Amino acid sequence: MTAERQRLDDERQSITHHFMIRSPDGERDFYLTVGMYADGRLGEIFIKAGKEGSFSSAALDALACAISIGVQHGIPVGQFTTKLRHIKCEPAGLVTGAPEELAGGHKFFAQSPIDYIAAYLDWRWPSGVLRGRADAACGGEVGR
Q: How far is it, in rounded angstroms, from Cα 1 to Cα 84?
């Protein structure tokens, strides 16, 4: 049985989130861009790390591609974020640019860029739909 891929419109809304992780080795910049379907559902992600051409940059790019293809085939984003939370690798440290609500009013400590990205996606798209968007399926506001 093959799942059908739901492609995004050629023109779509997106959110780009810039964050930095401060580790003992210094600060690293990251950019997470999330493309959405017209109803606010997460449809694709792109992750750019400050050091292009590095293994970590390539690995994050591959992860973004895998998540994008998965959600376009109907896998809930929460299936990914649950598995990716708390993955430990460098850089790890305090996150500059994290929304205060994400860490309960405290500074967010990421165990890795993957850990932070999963936490951010889970917070911003808690049910797969952008927080604060009207959810046509249940007729109410999405959020926690």
A: 27
pLDDT in tens, 109-136: 999 999 999 999 999 999 999 988 654 3
| Domain chopping of the chain, boundaries | 14-141
- List the one residue out of 58, 36, 24, 30 whose CA is nearest residue 115: 30
* Burial per residue of 5-41, b for 16 or more beta-carbon CB atoms within 10 angstroms, e otherwise: eeebeeeeeeeebebbbbeeeeebebebebbbbeebb
**Prior bond to 91 cis, omega within 30?**
yes
Q: Which tokens go with 46?
A: 């792109």
Name the pairing type of β-strands 26-36 and 42-49: antiparallel
| pTM, full prediction | 0.87
The pair phi, psi for residue 107, each rounded to 5°, is -75, 140
Cα–Cα distances (Å) from 58 to 11, 95, 134, in that order, read 26, 21, 35
What is the pLDDT at residue 103? 83
Q: What CA–CA distance (Å, rounded) separates 123 from 119? A: 6
